[in-house]
Design goal:
about 120 residues; alpha/beta; five-stranded parallel β-sheet; 5 strands; about 30% helix; globular
Length: about 120
Amino acid sequence: MHAPSIAQTRPADFDQWLAAHAGAEPVVLDVREPWEVQTASVTPAGFRLVTVPMNSVPARLAELDRTTPVACLCHHGARSQRVAAFLAQNGFDDVVNIAGGIDAWSRERDGTVPRY
């Protein structure tokens, strides 16, 4: 079985993704390690922020709602891409990867987010 192709959204285009899910309170799933989240994090605005380190996602899958749109976030986009594919394989229909991760978020969307 091959991994499903995962849609990508750039931080610069994130408002369009949010607008497409108005009324659904989408989730940004930050899959970075706790020290990374402490170093730099996004501010929830129009979405709910959920932080689950990548290696804990399988064990904590029940905490996520399969009917809620999810945008996965990590440092540069590789871990979140893997988590997005895992979610899609586990019945999540509306999953995107935030391409470029929090590093791109800082460059394209919110310059107050520290880069590391």
